[in-house]
Amino acid sequence: MRWQLALLCALATATPASAVTMSFDFGNNARLTNLSGWNDVFHASGSPTDTLFVVVDENGNAVPGVTLVETDPFYIVGQPSQGGSESPSGAAAGFPVDATDDYYFGHTGAFGGGDDNPTGGFKLTGLDQNLAYDFTFFSSRTGVNDNRETAFSVTGANVGSGVIATSNNDSEVLSLNGITPDGNSEISIAVMAGPNNDNGNGFYYINLMQVSTAIPEPTTGLLLALAGGFAAFGRRRR
Asked: Into how many domains does the chain fold?
């Protein structure tokens, strides 16, 4: 019975590991989210976004090995404006206004000195292949009368996709959960106009992104081991 007692003691003392959340604010360098736990993503006029070689979690601690790399530039001719939500509510209520107000955007066809830009994208590298990641996106452009629906696709070893009704959005978010990294420990994110987008320039937007992962609780493995052990014990007694 010693091994059963050892397993029971370990089960009783085990504590769940905590989740890690990484928050990214995309947009104007005049409206950064200067809060601990947020990563600001912006570019100099005419230049793609610099790689974020240090990504911090919700506590302001660097997440080992993780970087954010822009792979498909958004509009970069000038700084994006600050036309997103200034009154986040509903599912977006917990986000800071500095993150919901500005954005990265792209367009179909030439616009404002920029060439055709039907998609924008980036990737997270250095992720843990043993974990699944949950993505939350917020997309908002206020003061408009057309449909600027924005579509998101997240690709690792599996794929998730969805849309946000961006026009005058204060509350809607998009959650794409359970995405696992590919063989290179990467997950790619693509942003584009949604199928219902009827804007003449096909404008699409990303204001912010949160990425979270729940590390498996040690108690799960212990429960399985305990069940298997008792089953084996029962077979021996029979």
From this structure: 1
Which of 55, 188, 40 shows the shortest CA–CA distance to 122?
A: 188
Give 154-198 pLDDT, tens digit per residue: 999 999 999 999 999 999 999 999 999 999 999 999 999 999 999
Comparing 39 with 43, the larger pLDDT belongs to 39
Is residue 40 domain-resident? yes
Per residue in 50-69, pLDDT (tens digit) is 999 999 999 999 999 999 99
Measured between alpha carbons, how far is 95 from 104 in angstroms, rounded to an integer?
17
23: closest CA among 69, 65, 60, 51? 60
Lookup: tokens for 70: 């822009």
Question: Which residues have a Cβ under 8 Å from the Cβ of 188 and sit 6 or more positions away?
Answer: 71, 121, 122, 123, 154, 155, 156
d(C-alpha 229, C-alpha 237), whole Å: 12
Please give the Cα distance from 182 to 201 (Å, whole number). Answer: 33
Q: Report CA torsion sign: 42, 43, 44, 45.
A: negative
Does some domain include residue 1? Answer: no
pLDDT at 97 over 70: yes
Q: Take residue 88 and report the two structure tokens written for it.
A: 């986040």
Specify if 147 maps to a domain: yes
How buried is 41 (Cβ within 10 angstroms: 0-12 exposed, 13-18 middle, 19+ buried)? buried
With respect to residue 11, please indicate whether it lies within any of the assigned structural domains. Answer: no
Residues in the chain: 238
